[in-house]
Amino acid sequence: MKAVDSTFLIGLLRGDPGAVEKARELDEEGGMATTAVNVYEVAYGIHRGMSDPSHRMDAFERVMSNLDVLPLDGGSALRAAKISGTLDKSGESIDPFDALIAGITLENGADSLVTRNTSHFQRIRGLKIEAH
User: Fold this and answer.
1) pTM of the predicted model, to two decimals?
2) Rounded Cα–Cα distance for residues 38 and 17 (Å)
3) What is the extent of the structural domain holding 26?
4) What confidence score (pLDDT) does residue 1 get?
5) Which of 44, 55, 81, 105 suits a disulfide with 3, CB 3.0-4.6 Å?
């Protein structure tokens, strides 16, 4: 299973041909998952940025119905804290949401994280990144 980031989900919602093709590929390879944090990020963006978000939320819920949503649990939170603390100590801070996404992805044993924001995640030891 591969986890997909918010940037990938937004691409799917926009009908980006590259994201749509990658989604088909991932389905054939064993499926996709996302994190509860990614669900929050995308839904927040829809509600914040649109005057009538219901149509876009319906589309997002259809996309989510084809995904496993990995939860933020205690183990994931501890893994995210270790990621943040280690990077902060070395002078490389990370966005808290990105640390949570990475912690959840790693804690749940995903093969990799599919994202457009490779620079956000490439510093995290043990996290495989797949650009899309």
Assistant:
1) 0.94
2) 21
3) 2-72+110-131
4) 92
5) 105
* Alpha-carbon distance values, 112 to 29, 46, 84 (Å): 12, 26, 19
Instruction: Classify residue 117: in a domain, yes or no.
Output: yes
Tokens of 31: 């499926």
CATH number, position 20: 3.40.50.1010
DSSP per-residue letters across 88-103 = HHTT----HHHHHHHH
Q: Are 94 and 84 in contact (CB under 8 A)?
A: yes
Number of structural domains in the chain: 1
Residues in CB range of 123: below 8 A, 6 or more apart: 87, 92, 94
Q: pLDDT tens across 42-88, in order?
A: 999 999 987 788 999 999 999 999 899 999 999 999 999 999 999 99
